[in-house]
TrEMBL record:
Its EC number is 1.-.-.-. It is an enzyme of class 1 (oxidoreductase). The lineage of its organism: Bacteria, Pseudomonadati, Pseudomonadota, Betaproteobacteria, Burkholderiales. GO terms for molecular function: oxidoreductase activity. Residues 6-399 form the FAD dependent oxidoreductase domain. It comes from Comamonas terrae. This is NAD(P)/FAD-dependent oxidoreductase. Keywords: Oxidoreductase. Gene3D superfamilies: D-Amino Acid Oxidase, subunit A, domain 2, FAD/NAD(P)-binding domain. The keyword Oxidoreductase applies. It comes from the Bacteria. InterPro entries: FAD-dep_OxRdtase, FAD/NAD-bd_sf.
Amino acid sequence: MTTPSVAVLGAGMVGVATALELQRRGMAVTLLDRRAPGLETSYGNAGVIARSSLMPFNHPRLWGTLPGLLGNRGTGFRYSPAFVASNLRWALGFVGNARRSVFRETTAALDSLIRLSTDEHRRLLAEVNALDRLRDNGWLFLYRHAASFEAPGARLGRETMAQYGIATQVLQAGELQALEPVLNPLFAKALWIKDSYSVNSPGAVVRAYADAFAARGGRVQTTELRTVQQTGDGLWTVIDSSGTGQAYDRVVVALGPWSRQFLAGLGVEIPMGFERGYHLHYAEGAGARSLQRPIYDTAGGYVLSPMEHGMRLSTGVELNDCDAPMKPVQLELAEAAARQALPLGPRLDQPLWMGRRPTLPDSRPVIGEMPGRPGLWLAFGHQHIGFSTGPGTAALLGALMQGDTRLPLDPHPFRASRFL
């Protein structure tokens, strides 16, 4: 039997994990991207692998917060009115999916995907001798005021985590101080989400997976991708910017936020929003103890994660065009808030880094074959949790591609026909 050839387009966490999984299943895989593996959005995230990420931004309590969000002055959320106006299908769909029925389906789907991905991450990290990068001490949601802890959205989050059996612990101010002495006495309460892992360098983890793929015979090509074309014999030709083409039995589009533009070249319209975010690294404050786990300051609108190269400050959401110029206002506000929370040292890196988080109207990724185009497979739209859900996406996609009768999770919530 001929070994199937597969091109995986996109070398972020989703693409690299997919390449590894298809290789494990005996396929001849080529991984293609314009940059080396792990240098785009998968590089700059907070490094959290958290079951709490099953809670989508468009949950049923979103309606009550919309007036404040539309003011466009918050630290955790900013938007471009021009982007929203030109992407109304996505915007209206995103808000419209903040219904309890959709929320129930999304949380169940994301929980199963995150749980599968966590197991796969642990397996892969052990295989590539990188388990030393993994922390298993959870992460913290911090609340500056008790009223914020009791707000409807925060309550819904705790109720949802309890429903899915996610281990959490409510901490009073003194208990938080004992757990993380580096924090200033600024926070009235905290939620310690124990069913969570984190890594000290997401980009290094992606590179380690990509190196393992290459060491096992996989091909990694750095090239500017232009389009794909299906030939009469059912093969797919991947064409780069030079016009050079290479034929494969199957193609996987895992280009993250650039999947929308790439598929538009095939006449396929994807309702995708771009939740852009920024990060910088900082030295630890003089004489301060290290932060032991990632923290999310719910009022400050940032996540602070201990990384191997310093403390990484990651911002919230900026809705804007994928490649619009950077707007550092969120980073400046987040940095000021973080300096209130703990002794943060000077900035360690320039220039400012930005990532794009591709979000579909129901906050679930597309995982599966393109309707009406056999051999063209899709794996994108993972919003904030591509690092958390990449390996599970790969496991599901591999099982679907090989026609397994037993699948690792229900593929229905991730079907491409939701939007295509």
